[in-house]
Amino acid sequence: MAAETVDGSALAGRALAAAGARHMFGVVGIPVTSLASRAAAAGVRFLAFRNEQSAGYAAAAYGFLTGTPGLLLTVSGPGCVHGLAGLSHATANAWPLLMVSGSCDQADAGRGDFQELDQIAATKPFAKLAVKATTIADIPHLVFQALAAAVSGRPGGCYLDIPSDVLHQTLPESEAADLIAAAAAADSAASNPSPPKQKPLDEGIEKAADLLRRAERPLVVIGKGAAYARAEAAIRKLVDTTGIPFLPTPMGKGVVPDSHPLSATAARSLAIGQCDVALVVGARLNWLLHFGEPPKWSKDVKFILVDVCEEEIELRKPHVGIVGDAKRVIELINREIKDDPFCLARSHPWVEAITKKAKGNVVRMEAQLAKDVVPFNFMTPLRIIRDAILAEGSPAPIVVSEGANTMDVGRAVLVQNEPRTRLDAGTWGTMGVGLGYCIAAAVAEPERLVVAVEGDSGFGFSAMEVETLVRYQLPVVVIVFNNNGVYGGDRRGPDEITGPFKDDPAPTSFVPAAGYHKMMEAFGGKGYLVETPDELKSALLESFRARKPAVINCIIDPYAGAESGRMQHKN
Q1: Same-domain pairing of 483 and 553
Q2: Computed from CA positions of residues 502, 507, 508, 509, in that sequence, does the dihedral angle turn out positive or negative?
Q3: At what angle do helices 8-18 and 173-191 cross, to 10 degrees?
Q4: How far apart are the first and last CA of the chain?
Q5: Predicted confidence pLDDT, tens digits, the chain (571 residues)
């Protein structure tokens, strides 16, 4: 009787499962269809998408939500190119992801083979590590190596290339088991090395605590890196024991509840403009934080920057730089402060100034939100959505926010009181992430409802994935703010409507009052068309209770929005 053999597809699937992978997102075809099936048989659930870009964004978000690499599977050539969107997005946001692609037979490389592409060269600019399995025996080791690289240091995307001939190679079952065991053992040894020589944390911790203690106007800035690091308990303790106001970045919302009395979100301009010491945890001083420079920030502000990447510290040159995991560093700062405690009273001038400004801005915003404006502006439906989400209690729904005005206004209105419950365009301002994020959130956090608040332009990038929602019966409610186009349809002035193509639709306009809800109905999901507060409330109540795929097509006044891109903060 012939010895049992294992091919490259089965070996890859088993290696991924042995390395701890539980979900994979992608689009199958030659030469990776069998790999998807074999991985599923080994215990890695495969979520089949309609487009590799959406699958890539799902894998990226999965990495953020779980702290483990999201897996993206693509075919060769153009499939790999489509996958670059998710790979690069993960790296830009510092989220762990492993993209696995099939490629052409090695013997035919350079001869114009089917979907031939130098995929290592294509992925290298966007990946922490890009490797190719040249024989079947390479697969287990490279799987473990790439998954480990994705989470080490600053997390990011990695790439594994498995040529078609390698996927079809075979080896004996006993050898396959030995290769996986050896790869697992090597990974375990690499994960527990002798402690490397590095700069001691103690000096930086002491300096940070001392600087915060002596500050007159301190501020804690919470980035999505703090959410990724599960630093919420440590940061909440720091805020509560010191009385220092905090400001979250968009995806740092919820690490400390938005409802906390020391939140400076509604007083952002005052907080960053007048603070004298800023402890920045898990956030980069990039465009989202105005590069930490005047005029938004005081020229005299002293930054304490906590980051897992030493290069980031060197680039920004803060007053105090601490390289390390956000959770561990804040725990050490808490311990240092405990030995010589301090706390800003609610009557402290700085706390009073932040609180007064925040309350004033909230009162003004709530006055706008209280009005039922029909046809809908952005405020009225966002208030209704906010209240419906808050009524769900805990575990709170995960909110996916995508669009221009929809995302910008939603950032101020929607409330996050639990960590990792807001997903948006991220560091790159990427459009098209919406439904991929929804699918990732639904499988990563199955106990939570997922609510997407999408502009009609943002929704259009990934709208076909509503079929994927229905196919897997995921608890996702997608609310489309339909204002007839990008920013609200045709906004051209008379001087722009000239020339031989003046009768064409505006570059920003879509088909008016498009029936997006009917797309969902076409696949067997539930669709709603809403134009009034009562219709929206009814649709939210019914869809939230059902926890089934739904699209709510919310008609918005096309003149309610404005051109939007960079974050605009007027508070």
Answers
A1: yes
A2: positive
A3: 30
A4: 77
A5: 456 999 999 999 999 999 999 999 999 999 999 999 999 999 999 999 999 999 999 999 999 999 999 999 999 999 999 999 999 999 999 999 999 999 999 999 999 999 999 999 999 999 999 999 999 999 999 999 999 999 999 999 999 999 999 999 999 999 999 999 999 999 988 876 554 444 567 889 999 999 999 999 999 999 999 999 999 999 999 999 999 999 999 999 999 999 999 999 999 999 999 999 999 999 999 999 999 999 999 999 999 999 999 999 999 999 999 999 999 999 999 999 999 999 999 999 999 999 999 999 999 999 999 999 999 999 999 999 999 999 999 999 999 999 988 999 999 999 999 999 999 999 999 999 999 999 999 999 999 999 999 999 999 999 999 999 999 999 999 999 999 999 887 888 999 999 999 999 999 999 999 999 999 999 999 999 999 999 999 999 999 999 999 999 999 999 887 665 554 444 4
DSSP 70-97: EEEEE-STHHHHHHHHHHHHHHHHT--E
Name the pTM for this structure: 0.95
> How many residues can be counted in the chain?
571
- Domain match, 341 and 387 both: no
Q: Which long-range contacts (CB under 8 A, 24 or more apart) does 193-202 make?
A: 198/323, 199/323, 201/322, 201/324, 201/329, 201/332
Domain boundary among 125, 156, 191: 191
Q: Give the three-class secondary structure for 429.
A: coil
Q: Which domain holds residue 549?
A: 371-570
Q: Measured between alpha carbons, how far is 422 from 103 in angstroms, rounded to an integer?
A: 36
- 347 with 479, same domain: the answer is no
Q: Using the 3D structure, point to which of 321, 355, 389 is the last residue of a domain.
A: 355
- Collapsed DSSP state (helix, strand, coil) of residue 135: coil
Q: Does a cis peptide bond (omega within 30 degrees of 0) precede residue 512?
A: no
Q: Are residues 350 and 389 in the same domain?
A: no
In a domain, 360, yes or no: no
- CB half-sphere exposure, 90, CA atoms < 13 A: 43
Q: Do 278 and 223 reside in the same domain of the chain? A: yes
Q: Which residue type sits at 477?
A: V
Both tokens of residue 307? 């980051």
Gap between the Cα atoms of 149 and 24, Å rounded: 18
Tokens of 298: 């005081």
* Co-location of 217 and 314 in the same domain: yes
Q: Is 365 within a domain?
A: no
- Which tokens is 518 given? 């009917």
By C-alpha distance, which of 72, 43, 17 is closest to 439? 72
Instruction: For residue 461, tell me if it sits in a domain.
Output: yes
The CATH number of whichever domain residue 299 belongs to comes to 3.40.50.1220
Cα 360 to Cα 366: distance, rounded to the nearest angstrom: 10
Q: Is residue 361 part of a domain?
A: no
Same domain for 260 and 172: no
CATH no. for residue 111? 3.40.50.970
Is the same domain home to 183 and 211?
no
Overall domain count for the chain: 3
